[in-house]
C-alpha cells in the first residue's frame, strides 16, 4: 500500500516545515489529490493517523481536496474532464494529441498548527 509511504512523506515534510516555526502541535493538514494520482483517500487517512503517532502531528486532521482530471486537445484546443478511467481522446474532434492539464496532483496545500509563542500584551498606549 503506497498510501503509507505517502503519509510518511507528508508527515516528514510537515514536521520539517513547522518545527523551525515553533509549532507544538499540528491541527490539520490539507492535501490536494488529483483524480488520477492513484491514491485511495480512506487508505491514506488511515495511514496518515498511524504515521502521525509520536510526532508533532499526532491527532492532526487530514483534509483532502479532490482535483478533477482535465485534458486539452492539441488539435482543436477543446478541454474536457477526463473522468475515471480517463478518456484521453478528444470528444470534440477525436484527436489523440492530448495534454493532461490536471488530475495528477498530490501536494500539501495548507497546514494549521499551534505554537508556544507568547501572545504580546498590549501596552498602555495600545489599549
Helices, strands, pairings?
Blueprint: H1 2-18, E1 23-34, H2 41-52, E2 61-67, E3 70-73, E4 79-81, E5 98-102, E6 106-115
Parallel strand pairs: 1-2
Antiparallel strand pairs: 1-6, 3-4, 3-5
Helix pairs in contact: 1-2
Spatial ordering of strands, largest sheet = 2-1-6
| Helical/strand content category | alpha+beta
Quick one: overall form?
Answer: elongated
Number of helices: 2
The Cα radius of gyration reads 20 Å
- Roughly what percent helix? 10-25%
Number of strands: 6
Largest β-sheet summary = 3 strands, mixed
* N/C terminus separation: 56 Å
The ordered H/E elements are HEHEEEEE
Low-confidence parts: 117-122
Keywords:
127 residues, alpha+beta, 6 strands
Could you explain the architecture of this structure?
It is built from two helices and six strands. With 127 residues, it is of the alpha+beta class. The model is unreliable at 117-122 (pLDDT under 50). The protein has helices at residues 2-18, 41-52, and strands spanning 23-34, 61-67, 70-73, 79-81, 98-102, 106-115. Helix 1 (2-18) crosses helix 2 (41-52). The radius of gyration is 20 Å and the shape is elongated. Strand 3 and strand 4 (79-81) form a beta hairpin.
Briefly characterize the structure.
The chain is of the alpha+beta class and 127 residues long. The protein has helices at residues 2-18, 41-52, and strands at residues 23-34, 61-67, 70-73, 79-81, 98-102, 106-115.
